[in-house]
Amino acid sequence: MAPLVVHVTGARPNFPKAAPVLQALSAYPVEQLLVHTGQHYDDAMSEVFFRQLGIPKPDVNLGVGSGAHGAQTAKVMEALEELFTQRRPDLVVVYGDVNSTVAAALVASKMGITFAHVEAGLRSFDMTMPEEINRLVTDKLSDLLLTTSTDAIAHLGNEGTAPEKIHFVGNPMIDTLLTHRERFDAAAVRAELGIEGDYLVATLHRPGNVDDPDDVRALVAAMHAVADQAQVVIPLHPRGRARLEDAGFLDHPGMRVVDPLGYLEFMGLVRGSVGVVTDSGGVQEETTILGVPCLTLRPNTERPVTITHGTNQLVTRDTLAERVREILAAGKLTQWPTPPLWDGHAGERIAAVLASSLGAVRP
Ligand code: UD1
Ligand code: UDP
């Protein structure tokens, strides 16, 4: 019987990471089961990725929905424990740093099931971020640690992870970007949204920016100073939307808030922009490959390779307007470095590591 590989996904950033792994692993004699925990459930946060990226419909949806960290993580754990007890996977694969990731890691490791972490070893060293806690716990328990950058290998080494567990495979999110790049239609998105002239894109959803009312007020003022210089289009994540709107986010003629966009539309929007202001992890990586200047509104990043090898820089609310002035004056980049192994073949390298751990050989 073919070995069973269970992929656990659940939140928006998981889907473009899992897509190339599912695809590449289908060339091997393994059975694959795709689990969606239901952490994200709006069409624009979930299903649109499956439709646009050709990801198979999840075999199982655990339907956990939203909740406080403990409750949400516990619901995923309870449902996965039952599923793993029934199906007895030979390997579990988890992606990124969301609550669904750490929940699957805890269940798999306690049940003695081998599991692999795609995007292991990233560190912001900021324990106020829930994602940092999720990364540390997941990596500590992982049997196979698949890394996107060399700094991640160094962090894992410093934490005492055995070198034979670590595999430098590149970035599967970038596989997805390169596969679908020709479908990112900046002109179509511009027409659809009625945008004229130069524009910046913003995405903001980190608790550190949008949860506390004082932070929100300061963020609104900082973003209005950006909109004084160029119009800003913001596909706004549901987290914090009400708080931002209540604090007057929209009370500026240059601010344009839209609902979260599908992957292709979002990437088209970014591709056609003069720059991005974000607190997203994935967007720092995508702008690096598209050559779009990226201002990350955070005190730190777990993706420093997007600064050393990309278009990213960290900004504060106080420095944001000045950095926007600089990127608008500098114009489009013509040359920039890109990180090693962000070449569109990470999914194949990941599949090869997973298959080899199962003794599965390509026919
Ligand atoms: C989660 C991840 C974060 C990631 C982000 C990507 C954790 C701890 N955080 O944050 O790392 O950057 O996803 O988007 O896992 N909501 C909806 N519709 C949905 C999903 C959520 O309206 O489909 C709203 C709910 O009010 C929910 C809130 O958004 O309470 C937050 O959702 P949640 O999944 O808990 O965290 P995110 O902020 O999305
Ligand atoms: N994204 C999208 N539509 C949007 C915003 C984001 O398709 O309106 C995509 C984009 O590819 C991004 C990914 O969703 O990289 C995950 O983004 P998010 O900021 O939610 O998560 P993070 O990477 O911060 O965990």
From TrEMBL:
Keywords: Isomerase. GO terms for molecular function: isomerase activity. Residues 30-354 form the UDP-N-acetylglucosamine 2-epimerase domain. Pfam families: Epimerase_2. InterPro entries: UDP_GlcNAc_Epimerase_2_dom (IPR003331), WecB-like (IPR029767). The keyword Oxidoreductase does not apply. This is UDP-N-acetyl glucosamine 2-epimerase. It comes from Janibacter melonis.
